[in-house]
Amino acid sequence: MRSPERFFHGAMLMQNSPMPDLYIGLMSGTSLDGADGVLVDFSGGQLKVLAAATEAFTDSFRAELLALNSPSNNELHRAAIAGKQLATIYAKVVHTLLKAAPGPAKAIGAHGQTVRHQPQKDAGYTLQLNNPALLAELTDIDVVADFRSRDVAAGGQGAPLVPAFHQSVFGQAGVTVSVLNIGGISNISVLPGQAGDPVLGFDCGPGNALMDAWCQQNTGQPYDAGGAWAASGKLIPALLNSLLDDPYFSEPPPKSTGRDLFSPQWLAAKLMPFLDELPADIQNTLTEFTASPCITAVCSYGKDSKELVVCGGGAFNLHLMQRLQAGLPQLRVLPSGERGLPPLQVEAAAFAWLARQTLHRLPGNLASVTGAAGPRILGAIYPA
Ligand SMILES: Nc1ncnc2c1ncn2[C@@H]1O[C@H](COP(=O)(O)OP(=O)(O)O)[C@@H](O)[C@H]1O
Ligand SMILES: [Mg+2]
Questions:
Q1: Is 317 in the pocket of ligand 1 (CB under 6 A)?
Q2: Cβ distance 226 to 212 under 8 Å?
């Protein structure tokens, strides 16, 4: 794995340092499946994942988070309660991870649960539910939280924040590499082979969110395991065209999106004329709809890439992976595990890395990605 050293401004890391440099990263994304955590050691200029743990959300907590994504009754109170519940789940993950820790962790990077993402100028905010004070209380470790707001305050999208980390672990000298994260929303990072060239990145469109919703509604399963159900259906071209007919897809980057736009209501309106179609055919089309903007993103911004490294739970959707490969015959599509970091560990490790950046007063964003006025130190620190 490539050294993340250059993002630590070199001298901050001692090569072959005997002391572990431990951080915990916690990610719970828009798929609303649960909280993924990793314990990472950055000592010696190398990133090493010492432990990984996942805590699934209960059906009722997932339903509440989904409800809180839209305006609803008494939402301030309910958001505060959900933030506390999330912090308790995070603490459980942390306590599992600490069993493998060879020393004290310096900080926890806790993403929180996005329930609104409206970085556009008229609104200009992004909101992650969390209770970092409670998490600090429950773990006695410094917690870094609310990573996105500072980038938005600097005029950026606040997302994606992972490309700098992607560059540090997946970048290759002399070769352009594209990295695709398929969480609830999909986002791409294009990592240049030439030092000094800007990293590009943006949200492509929906990831698992809409496929999960349709699968849940029709089969009772939380997701289409392996994409087998989608693979059993066939494409409905008119539906695909309708889904792709949204202004988001023709907007140039920097851009980011969320469930604010690609909501259950958005999907229901698009599906209205197609409800006589077979559910499996709709799932097949939703999978193609997920793949298509990702393929376009690689062709437009990462066309020299030799590899598309896929992370996030979408990497386990074999049918989706096959559709990506079919649309990008010029390069190899591979799960991130083949490049040293398994799909569900990448984003969590990124938030461990971002927490370390913050503790060292180093920037975490890339202005070339988010459109912020410049590099910024992200997040707020809740001391142990
Ligand atoms: N075996 C699998 N087959 C297909 N999809 C899967 C599988 N495992 C996980 N997923 C998908 O990945 C999602 C979780 O991905 P994740 O990267 O955690 O997203 P997020 O960051 O939005 O939480 C699940 O909701 C599901 O859609
Ligand atoms: Mg998840």
A1: yes
A2: no
C-alpha 12 – ligand 1 centre gap (Å): 35
- Asked whether residue 233 falls in the same domain as residue 361, the answer is no
Q: Residue with the nearest Cα to atom 13 of ligand 1?
A: 313
Q: Among 26, 27, 31, which residue has the most ligand 1 atoms within 8 Å of its CB, making it the best to mutate?
A: 31
Query: How many angstroms does the Cα of residue 34 sit away from the middle of ligand 1?
Result: 10
pLDDT at 350 over 80: yes
Whether 135 and 206 map to the same domain: the answer is no
Ligand 1 atom with the smallest distance to the CA of 225 is 3
The residue-averaged pLDDT of 110-125 equals 95
Question: Rounded to 5 degrees, what angle do the CA atoms 23, 315, 357 make?
Answer: 25
**CB neighbours of residue 125 within 10 Å:** 14
Residue ranges making up the domain that contains 360: 5-160+345-382
Ligand 1 lined by 316 (C-beta under 6 Å): yes
Would the pTM of this model clear 0.90, i.e. be above it? yes
